[in-house]
Amino acid sequence: MSDSVVKIRNTVRYVRSSPARFKKFKTASKMEVTSLFVTSNQYFHELCLIKNVIKNYTTEKDPLLSRMTKGMESKFNKYWGDFEKINSLLFVAIIHDPRYKLKFIKYYLSHFDEKDC
Predict the structure, then answer these.
(1) Is 18 helix (H, G, I), strand (E, B) or coil?
(2) What is the extent of the structural domain holding 68?
(3) At what angle do helices 88-95 and 101-112 cross, to 10 degrees?
(4) Do residues 58 and 70 touch, judged by C-beta distance below 8 A?
(5) Which of 14, 56, 62, 77 fits as disulfide partner to 81, beta carbons 3.0 to 4.6 Å?
(6) Is 94 exposed, middle or buried (0-12, 13-18, 19+ CB in 10 A)?
(7) What would the pLDDT profile of 44-61 be if each residue is shown by its tens digit?
């Protein structure tokens, strides 16, 4: 018998030996698994979160941190600062996401540009 199979069997025995452990395992196995990767419908939301973090840290009192985030802000704006450069399929993915729909885009587009804030 393979060493891996023996380890799995021992683990199963260990989990089943305690009702509390078995209950925790059963609960964990029923949990909804989410993706570890940013999918297209989450991408815009993550983008806005990054924008807000950069914006908050550029006004930081610590000069080193402020200088670092200003560099990040210029790189961020290079790729994401102009909506004309953003692939419009990203917006299509957001519109089809039932959690956000069109309201989400309208809200973030009105608040994303610093001139409108």
Answers:
(1) coil
(2) 40-116
(3) 140
(4) yes
(5) 77
(6) buried
(7) 778 888 888 888 888 878
Question: Which tokens belong to 112?
Answer: 């994303």
Comparing C-alpha atoms, which of 53, 54, 48, 60 is closest to residue 111? 48
Of 87, 54, 32, whose CA–CA distance to 46 is shortest? Answer: 54
18 and 45 housed in the same domain: no
- Of residues 43, 83, 46, 41, the one with CA closest to residue 54: 46
* More confident: 34 or 79: 79
User: What number of residues does the chain have?
Assistant: 117
Say if CB 111 and CB 117 are below 8 A apart. Answer: yes
Residues 6+ apart with CB under 8 A from 111: 117
Structure tokens at 94: 């957001």
How far is Cα 55 from Cα 1, in angstroms, rounded to an integer? 58
User: Are 5 and 60 in a shared domain?
Assistant: no
pTM of structure: 0.48
Q: Which amino acid is at 70?
A: K
CA atoms within 13 A on the CB side of 105: 15
Tokens of 56: 């908050």
In this structure, the answer to whether residues 25 and 47 fall within a common structural domain is no
